[in-house]
Amino acid sequence: MFDDKLSIIQNLTGVNSSKLNYYLEVQRSNEQIKIQINRLEILHQLIKDINIDMSLSDIVERVYNRLPQAVPCSFLGLALAEGDCLVMTAAIPVNASLGQALPKTSVLWQSYTGCQRLLYNVNTRPEHICSLVDEQDPVESWGLKSMAMVPLLVRQRVIGVLIVGDNQAFTYGNSELNFIEQLADQLVICIENARLYKEVSKGKQEWEATFTAVPDPIFLIDKNHHILRHNLRNQELALITEEFGDRQKCYRILWNRTAPCENCSLHEVHQTGRGVYCQIQNEGAIFDAFYYPMVDSTGEIYAVILHLKDVTEKVKMEAQLMHSTKLVAIGEMAAGVAHELNSPMTVIIGTAQMMQRDLGNDDPRSEWLDDIISCGMRCKKIIQNLLSFSRQGQFSLKETNINDQVEKVLSLIHYQINRNNIQIIKGLDPALPIVMANGHQLQQVVINLLLNARDALEERDGEKVIGITTAVQDHWAIITVKDNGCGIRPDCLTKIFNPFYTSKEASKGTGLGLSVSLGIAQSHGGTLEVESQPGVGSTFKFKLPLKVPEVRANG
């Protein structure tokens, strides 16, 4: 009886009704909390799934596939600002507005220009926020009855609008709008990161393309002489630098050394903090080397850029021009001296001939006059050869007898060779064919080779021999100069044709002779080869192409 009375009192006073309402409210709150937790989880998972290298279409598609788990969604789109336009950039499903600029009367412009989130319903009621301004708004053609629009903000600047739509009316309220705003905030971060990533990636690709397109080798070298990067100008180098250890050292890869170079310019750059220029000779090539410091954000030099430019041909041309200029000056002086000597020699020979005629052949003194006349004629021949060699004209090729040019050279420098007690052995092939060449330049090469052979014999004790021969071999006419002198070290063989490289004292050589000789040989379509062994001697072969016979038509 007591329990029945208590129940009647609780019903009359509304206690049971309050408890029911309370439990219903708690249940609704729990459901809302579960919905929010679920939305946050979905939001978190979406952001994890989005990569910075994804396109905007991929991002929208990824979000669209997961979004219905959080809010009803049958449409998802991004309208981004491009200059003064608002362009429909990405949409799922795709519609006719994709890629098109939206009219400024569109409801999307209200969200963009007003920087405010908006709700749109096809059956708009006064209490809802916005309605279509123009009947031609593209939104009408999308078939949506509900739509939420949230501006995309980057550093207080609106870059576009996120659109979430559904084909049911009154789908979205403040709860859904809040979630969509959170989604927009996360998406704008992803979009901005993707944009920055593309800009950085594009800049990186442009710089890499520029770096690779430079025809000269460029290297990035750290403090420990390791090559960090290069522009792959040499495929063998690319394979070597993939390995580890000492094989990555610049001095090993670039200069084939086992230890850092003496007076290494890398050290100078690190010490001074300034760029350095130097010229380097390596294995027959000459490089202009430019070193530039790479500085980090703290101002410390962490690496050095090495830019190498092959100037071998340029230096050879400069050397040949310098040598030619010097020869012009020497030739002018020699021509003047030769003319001065020619006049008294003519008088001496003429006077001796007249005295010989007056004395008669029976006079014993006539033999003395024969010696005077013979020596005078020899001097005139030497003077004539010197005049011929000193004439500087235009470079032209004509039919040339190599043996005649060799004989002229020997008559010019015979004394210089003989006074050093050097024996010259000739072996000139009398059947040597005519070649197309410039005689004066051929003489210049032979003189350089003979004088180098003489210098190689200076320190030799015992018999000193220079052999000069001419021969034909495999369509080449070959002038060979061989000596039994000191020879050339293997590490120097690749350098001897470099301009200004010389193993002689500064007063005895400029390092231009062989470089100019090689240039002359190449200009004739030939070459200059060398074989040498230290302590045994050297052999130089000046090879010229044989004259191609003319083909005559029959008849």
TrEMBL record:
Q: Name one Pfam family in it.
A: HisKA
Instruction: Give the Gene Ontology MF terms in alphabetical order.
Output: phosphorelay sensor kinase activity
PROSITE patterns annotated for this entry?
A: HIS_KIN (PS50109)
> Which major enzyme category is it?
transferase
What keywords is this UniProt entry annotated with?
Kinase, Phosphoprotein, Transferase, Two-component regulatory system
The record, for InterPro entries, names: GAF, GAF-like_dom_sf, HATPase_C_sf, HATPase_dom, His_kinase_dom, HisK_dim/P_dom, HisK_dim/P_sf, PAS-like_dom_sf
Give the catalytic activity: ATP + protein L-histidine = ADP + protein N-phospho-L-histidine
Q: Residue ranges of the Histidine kinase domain?
A: 336-548
What are the EC numbers? 2.7.13.3
Phosphoprotein: is it a keyword of this entry?
yes
The protein here is known as histidine kinase
Organism from which the protein derives: Desulforamulus aeronauticus DSM 10349
Q: What is the lineage of its organism?
A: Bacteria, Bacillati, Bacillota, Clostridia, Eubacteriales
